[in-house]
Amino acid sequence: MTGFEITGASAADMETIRTWADEEGWNPGDSDRFAFAVADPAGFLVGRIDGEPVACISAVRYGSAFGFIGFYIARPAVRGRGYGIRLWHAGMERLDGRLVGLDGVVDQQDNYRKSGFRSAWNNVRYEGVPAVNGSNAGADGAGAEVVDAASLPFGQLAAYDRRFFPASRDAFLSAWTALPGRTALAAVRDGRIEGLGVVRPCSGASRIGPLYASTPGIAAALLHRLAEHTPDGAVAVDVPDANPAATALLAGLGLTPSFEAARMYTGPAPEVELAGMYGVTSLELG
Q: What is the pLDDT of residues 140-182, one digit of tens each?
């Protein structure tokens, strides 16, 4: 492995990583890299041969006890030569002593199990233009009002997000909801947040994530309103199959599965409100 080194990712590297992920069919958001850099500026590593990027991984720290692995890619020309595993070990060393999560694509799940990960649930991407009918048109009948998330105190949004994620991530959430080109909506009833959704532009169908809601009706209302902010109404939502109400809702709206990854952890799955999680924030960062 002469000439191979591991370094932190530069701004140019982050754009390269985004392109690689798109080529893998992951359809990352056009501006995700800017929020990712806020999550953990040192959390992205690149493997280089004679200075040329050939592999990448993210090993992002949240708080003092949680971390998430993502963007684990070795370019096809260098696969099977040991570069990827060296980068993997570097990423895991960065998260040593923490509970670590990841979303593992099907062909890598056995390798992740060998590294101590175990499956918690599957995130299934549902994609398409959500249908509208009388039974799923919205949550207004439930007494919830859909508003611009930016109109709410940020501390209230952050506290709500914390119910669905194992650690605080205020700086990331602030960037994730406010980057240009995306729309963040909240459902509010009697001053309480009952749902939250963010849609962002991608090279394929616009991705919605997170999508949280106290009821399927509120989730449907948010999804329809978010779809109105896309070029053609087509959306993609990564749905945890551990929430059967979410799976039923997305299928009932006419969206179809297009991609699947296993949510895996190095220890017991953290306690989050799965019953209210209709779409995870990102397969890349949790």
A: 446 799 999 999 999 999 999 999 999 999 999 999 999 999 9
CB atoms within 10 A of CB 27: 19
Q: Give the residue among 125, 100, 116 at the shortest CA–CA distance from 270.
A: 100
Give the CA diameter of the chain.
65
Distance, CA of 59 to CA of 20 (rounded, Å): 17
CA dihedral (245, 264, 168, 209) positive or negative: negative
* Contact (CB, 8 A) for 149 and 186: yes
Cα–Cα distance between 159 and 13 in angstroms, integer? 33
Three-state SS at 69? strand
Specify the DSSP class assigned to residue 202: B
Please check whether residue 117 is in contact with residue 264, taking contact to mean a CB–CB distance below 8 angstroms: yes
**SS3 of 58, please?**
strand
**pLDDT category of residue 126 using cuts at 50, 70 and 90:** very high
Q: Could you give the angle at which helices 244-252 and 216-227 cross, rounded to 10 degrees? A: 50
Dihedrals phi, psi of 33, to nearest 5 degrees:
-60, -30
Token output for 120: 């918690």
Distance CA 160, CA 155 (A): 9
Dump pLDDT digits (tens) for 210-239: 999 999 999 999 999 999 999 999 999 999
How many Cα atoms sit within 13 Å of 90 on the Cβ side?
Answer: 21
pLDDT at residue 285 above 90? Answer: no
Tokens of 121: 């649930």
**Contact between 205 and 257 (Cβ < 8 Å):** no
Tokens at 145, concatenated:
């009002």
